[in-house]
Amino acid sequence: PRHACCGSTGRAAGGGELHLGKKTDAFTAVEVGDDDKPDILRAYLKRWKAEVGVFFNGVGPDSSAEELRRIAPDHPIFRITLTS
Description:
There is one protein chain. Helix content is 26%, strand content 32%. The chain has helices spanning 38-52, 65-71, and strands at 2-5, 12-20, 23-31, 78-82. The protein is elongated.
């Protein structure tokens, strides 16, 4: 996979390939900005809180947008786009 550093976050971004059986899909990955994460985190926690809630310091799907924004830097989210 190709990787490029994304700003000052130090998190990997770039692209790579997804393989399922004989099928291969190339993709690019771009980190989502913290201000854009609250709605995504809310949807994720609505679906998976029972399994992952311990990692969110008491913040859940019913938390305020401000609370979700506060924890956003601790939870990387990437936008994946298929390129093939």
